[in-house]
Amino acid sequence: MSRRVGVVRFPGTNCEFDTVDAINALGGHAEVLWHSASDLRNVDAIVLPGGFAHGDYLRCGAIARFSPIMETIAAFARNGGPVLGICNGFQVLTEAGMLPGALQKNVGLKFLCGMEQIEFVSTSNIIGVGASAGELLNIPINHFEGNYVCSDETLKELEEENRIVFRYIDNPNGSIGDIAGVSNEQGNVVGMMPHPERATSTILGSNDGSRLLESLLGAQQVTPT
Amino acid sequence: MAPEDADRVHRELGLSDEEYENIYALLGRHPNHLELAMYSVMWSEHCSYKSSKIHLKRLPTEAPWVLVGPGENAGVIDVGDGIAVAIRIESHNHPSAIEPYQGAATGVGGILRDIFTMGARPIAVMDPLRFGPLDDPRSRWIAEGVISGVSGYGNSVGVPTVGGEIVFDETYKGNPLVNVLAMGVLPVERLVLGRASGVGNLAVLLGASTGRDGIGGVSVLASAGFDDESANADKRPSVQVGDPFEEKRLLEACLELLDEGLVTGIQDLGGAGITCATSETASRGGAGMDVDISAIHSREEGMEPFELMTSESQERMLAIVQPRDLDRVLEISSRWEIAASVIGRVTGDGQLRILDGFDGEVLAELPASTLHDDAPEYDRPLAPPQDLNERRSLDASVGPVDCSADLLTLLRDPAWVYSQYDHQLFLNTVVGPGSDGTLLRLRDPRTGRETGRALGLSTDGNHRWCHVDPRQGTAMVVAEAAMNIACVGAEPMAVVNCLNFGNPEHPDVMWQLSEAVDGMSEACKAFNAPVVGGNVSLYNETNSIDIAPTPVVGIIGMHPRLVEQPPGITVGDGLSLVLLGQQPQGDVSMAGSRWAWEIGGCKGGTLPAFDLAQAVRTVAFVSEIVQKNRVEAVHDVGDGGIGVALAEMAINSRVGMDVSGLDDHRALFNESGGRVVVALSDSDLRSFLEESSNRGVPAQSIGRTGGLSLVLGSIIDLSVDDLTRASRDALPQALGQGTVSG
């Protein structure tokens, strides 16, 4: 596999190199894209990694959505390009309106870092290739604002359109419907709070994230609707 | 000698009359106000180590792998493959007592700058924390604030917090201890030192603007004790406010400057601010510096020169740059949205001149080295406490005994704390917080490639042992730290220390410090782990009552062949349990144990006998069996003795145990040093016992795993579920009772 993945770096991002390392270890070719660039350098997929883009000031992702690269990424996604937002990246995607809902503070009002068990709900998306619904994965979370909220209509829509990608088995943060990840209608834009790049080696406790990133590397551009 | 009007000023700044006269002699004239302010911060206890220096000289500091020892921003060791590790520990005790969140947050920020100042990317933080008792609402307020501060700043700045300690005790009620250790990796050849050299080179101030926060923090806060609480509130303006996003950008910008070889020296701005950074770089480089205070980017108008020179505003660095590289330095700073101002020029005359404009008025002029090399050094009177013999003759095992209830009381799962810290960033954390030691994969900082080796880290302190006997207690603390990293397979390489003590003007405190240094020195020599850096925090007192002596050590060691996760503390069913290490003989002493302090109520006695050579043998054996995965599980016996160690193993495994030979609370809860519990299959037992005996490590089979209850002789029979609940709920319940601020 030689798929090229652009990993976006905002000031304050901190998981960019972990994500690059994880992708490269799986045979991909990851490169870091600076937030103020507007050229995606012809990559085949985009990852918005975890961290604290622009310090998470104002609100997580609220400033990052205005970084020049986001406009290009939105166009890339409209053309069916695969975009994965992890943790802070998920928050950025909701702020940018590329995914529905929002992420508010965890119910316990504490930052939470640790392993969580999640269940694959929908696999019709860029990270579900080869997986089947109901599969359980161990992937760590690391967030203060991971409590997913959306309107009742949106929730219904997500369920009917099979766009809930993951649910937590033991909901750690109060997310509505135990939601840990969602996709857009076409399945080419996915946001998830757990960190797949942190689950890419058994010596670190889990390798369950590797298959998600492998799926991303194999994901085809979807046909724009 | 001192003129009438200056008389009051120098005392208000914390300088003694004698120190004033020294300044007069050095300058050959009376210092002006600005100069006095600069001496007062640089000669403060915090910056000058004037009370402790004379003792610290007795610590071992050298080994072939030590690249940089004490005295620089951080210690640096060579860990092979062209990789070096920078490590440092610091205290932020006083600021955290007054403003817990910001005190802890800026403690993290400060220590990280010490690491990237050396050219290293910080990859780990550890936080040994000590607070007043959990039943005190104000102590709970401080604890919650400090933990949130470490979490809020550390997570956001993007450095994982991979371990630490949390201790609650009456002795820290008015004066918590917030120590922070940071570690970073760098290619050996990139090592940079905080030196200004090359006449005509420029000093560029990078990062946050300079404001009125933290003026005189080192002298007002860190070098004086606390009185009552209202006075503490008055000191709040001396606490700095942290901005992790600024620090993150500063860190990345500085690492880029270093990558491109654009700086000849770099220094962080911490205690004593610009005064410290300019004078330290100049005097270390044997140079002088002209500093233009009008060039300092400041947060507000009308700041006085002494405010600009002593402000402890956070997130600032001073880089020494050749003029031809300035444009590129400014370009990188601008890319990271970091302010940069040329505030100084390196000169050849050794003078530190503070100017209003490079060609403007001279506001202060003094030999740069006098701020450091001529700082006072005191051999303060020391004496053991008068009641020492009386105290040592006490029997610490008396008190109401209910072994089951006592065991449940002593259990406290720290997960509530460390789950608030990102402890996984950088994908190195093989064994994280909540275990004996932390184990981080060692990767090459140039390529990210794994080396197949790993670094073991642990921080340890024990005020109870050190109160009973500061010398033996400190030696036991070092041995405990070494054992903790042995439990994850690492062999000790170096130590950093944070010496938290009371008021050095009290002779018994100086005696404690001196004894602790000797105990540390003996143990570090025995483990061949030199002290490569440290920090001394004195004046930890409230209303003239000193804290119990609390030397904290951070230890780093190497796991030479990491192929799989180390055994850890989790056991399966049907295994044999073996206790390794020195076994207490006869009626063992309970002195210094958590049981004696928290349940029995006796803080005296004589520590159990401790054989340092035996501990060294045990540590070596344990690290070897862990490296070879010879055992199924391993757990250090520490706080709460073997009773707590076995309960923790049972809780983590959800498996019961049946152990014999523990007949009373002494056997259960004594804290004799240098012991570990291991679990292994029955078929391996005989050969294992033989091997340990050949290696000179006492070992005895004590019981088996299995069932759903922890059964210890005839005195404990508790279900694992009950143990789990007690342990898991202890902290959230205690901290959920509400708090009272300031």
TrEMBL record, chain A:
Gene3D superfamilies: 3.40.50.880. SMART domains: GATase_5. Keywords: ATP-binding, Cytoplasm, Glutamine amidotransferase, Hydrolase, Ligase, Nucleotide-binding, Purine biosynthesis. GO terms for molecular function: ATP binding; hydrolase activity; phosphoribosylformylglycinamidine synthase activity. GO terms for biological process: 'de novo' IMP biosynthetic process. HAMAP family: PurQ (MF_00421). This is Uncharacterized protein. It comes from marine metagenome. The lineage of its organism: unclassified sequences, metagenomes, ecological metagenomes.
